[in-house]
Amino acid sequence: METNTLAVDYERTEMGSIQIAPEVIEVIAGLATVEVPGVAGMSGGFAGGIAELLGRKNLSKGVKVEVGQREAAVDVSIIVEYGNRIPEIASDIQRNVKRSIEVMTGLTVVEVNVHIHDVHFKAGEKPEEEETLHRVK
To answer: Taking the model in full, what pTM does it have?
Structure first.
């Protein structure tokens, strides 16, 4: 799914039209995603096989949207914090993103796809690799 680069005429009023750029939807979706407990951050995708953890400055980089005149579809790529239930986090993200976009823009969100790219370990939580026992000394 690619982001539309042009703002779509969303609503016409007596005084003119209201346009919402897809980048606005991306930022709303990114903010709504990182508000969910258990989300370590947005993921910029896999760079060389490693998910890139993006800070709050790059919220829209982990989001792709497709925006029509009345509807929007959203994909968010995230990194979860270790120890959280992924299905619950994903469901909370879907609800929060849908609600935030619909309330702020009036668009109907037809789908929110959540892509989990990695697990983030807090300091001291990372499971240590077990020592390899050598069969021969």
So the answer is: 0.76
